[in-house]
Design goal:
The chain is mostly helical and 511 residues long. A two-stranded antiparallel sheet has the order 1-2. The chain starts with a helix and ends with a helix.
């Protein structure tokens, strides 16, 4: 167990340290003290209580015990210049002779994150938002903004700092607004959850109607136009922003006081919805995020209605009708934070169902593929660097957008098509994680061949995959097909076909 944890700590960039409440019973560990190791009934090793796997941020004087729950992102820790102690700042290491060094390194790492990483991420975000706005993929990026921040090693609670560091110029306004929309969605989500908890204490019977009424009432207060809603935004939502996110508002916005309208700022953030050629504003994006985070389920076509309602009702000072009715809320699901294996398993099941309907029922196939993509995207939120999930996202996106609806024939796709860029992003991210993974290399070769039509690059990736895994049957077949149809080299193709046939017979014989 100790040796396995030592190896894991090296990969995660965690520092060994001495733990123990009593000086006479200390132990050298590579993990947080409260992690537990067990030998299962099957003889295998298991570890549990992984909540404090990574080191803490340096605590603010106003929250001295935040080291227990405000942790540094794994993406930041793994790339930091020094190994960091997961039990730093705590009393668990009070008998470690290097306690001062452990703690000081946490303060230095936190300062490096705040002073160097966050300003860089702010500028990267501005460039990313500009590019997405230009190619029509901003809505998709907006709804996965937290995944992108996690990739950069930034916790979502630091969005305010990202927003107000180096983003004060007019050319960065869209990036500022993108962060403001996400922060507002999270504040509203927490207010809804608080109301749902209060309602559960009041009503002891297991019926959904009281909860639907509570959700409907708050959604109308948030999204309906008029002075009452504006006041709610400028008091309740504003205070929530300042409490949940450090430096959520810029100095200029704070100086404006009540003159600065958060709701107006959100409504002025307009993005073009890819593929449909229509525009949506920040209010609609917040509603979609609330669906994702709270598991809200609306009646069929209701979101299309709300999209039109927002576009029609842009005069926020004028009183409007209330668009939300209790009958529109089909259900309130549970959103539980868990390891991504659950979302991955559900995504895989939906993917299999989508494939089973692929050539028989295109509508059913698309429905399951969309559900699968949603699950895989959610799994990426907790682990943005999972190459297998990234490959699945690329495969499903291609299935959804890359084939004609009826004939399932490959159709022309330009390099600027949003879905093509999205697939390539998934695959490039997977290759960044592991450049020697034959499955990712093969999948990227297929993408380059069929959708980018870049045959030389595709051939290079086929050969890389086969160099790493010479008996990769699908890769051998596809490369043989390419040699025949693209290179017109039937002699070379036949050698690969022969090899593929031999491998298939061997595999069937082993079975």
């Amino acid at each position: 167990m100790a040796e396995n944890l030592r190896k894991a700590a090296k990969v995660l960039n965690l520092k060994s340290h001495v733990c123990g409440v009593q000086k006479t019973s200390t132990q050298k560990l590579y993990t947080a003290t409260d992690l537990e190791g067990h030998i299962g009934g099957d003889g295998r090793l298991y570890i549990i209580d992984l909540s404090r796997t990574f080191p803490p941020e340096a605590p603010h004087p106003s929250a001295p015990r935040s080291y227990l729950f405000r942790l540094l992102r794994p993406e930041f820790v793994k790339t930091y210049q020094k190994r960091l102690c997961p039990d730093a700042i705590s009393s668990f290491i009070k008998h470690d002779k290097d306690i001062t060094e452990h703690n000081q390194e946490i303060y230095e790492a936190t300062e490096y994150l705040l002073a160097h990483i966050i300003p860089v991420v702010s500028r990267l975000l501005s460039s990313k938002v500009f590019k997405c706005h230009k190619d029509g993929t901003l809505q998709s990026f907006q709804l996965s903004l937290c995944v992108w921040l996690h990739q950069q090693g930034i916790n979502c609670r630091m969005m305010g700092l990202v927003r107000t560091r180096d983003l004060n110029k007019a050319e960065h306004q869209d990036a500022q607004d993108a962060l403001l929309v996400e922060m507002c969605a999270r504040v509203i989500k927490n207010k809804i959850r608080l109301l749902l908890r209060q309602t559960s204490k009041q009503f002891k019977i297991p019926v959904e109607e009281p909860y639907r009424e509570v959700v409907t009432k708050l959604l109308n207060l948030v999204f309906t136009n008029g002075p009452k809603s504006l006041e709610f935004w400028n008091t309740e939502i504003k205070s929530g922003l300042l409490i949940q996110f450090a430096s959520a508002l810029t100095e200029q916005e704070m100086k404006q006081g009540s003159i600065f309208s958060i709701k107006h700022q959100v409504a002025h953030y307009v993005v073009r919805e890819e593929r449909k050629g229509v525009s949506v504003d920040g209010r609609y994006l917040i509603l979609v995020r609330l669906q994702q985070m709270l598991g809200l389920q609306f009646r069929r076509q209701f979101m299309n209605y709300m999209q039109k309602w927002f576009n029609k009702n842009r005069q926020l000072n004028e009183v409007s009708d209330e668009p939300f009715q209790t009958e529109n809320v089909k259900g309130i699901g549970q959103r539980v934070k868990h390891i991504n294996i659950i979302d991955y398993a559900q995504g895989y099941i939906y993917k299999q169902r989508g494939q089973s309907y692929f050539r028989e029922d295109n509508e059913a196939s698309s429905k399951y593929f969309k559900k699968a993509l949603q699950k895989f995207e959610r799994a990426l939120e907790s682990n943005p660097h999972d190459k297998e999930i990234l490959r699945n996202c690329a495969e499903i996106t291609t299935a959804l957008h890359g084939y004609a609806d009826a004939q399932h024939q490959k159709i022309a796709a330009g390099p600027d098509d949003p879905w093509v860029q999205r697939v390539e992003t998934y695959l490039k991210r997977a290759l960044e994680v592991d450049q020697q993974d034959p499955e990712t290399l093969f999948q990227y070769a297929q993408f380059l061949r069929y959708w980018r039509h870049e045959m030389d690059f595709a051939e290079n990736y086929y050969l890389q995959a086969l160099e790493i895994q010479p008996n990769y049957l699908n890769c051998i077949r596809e490369y043989g097909n390419m040699l025949s149809s693209v290179r017109l080299d039937d002699e070379a193709a036949q050698s690969f076909y022969k090899r593929a046939k031999e491998l298939k017979l061997k595999i069937e014989g082993d079975l």
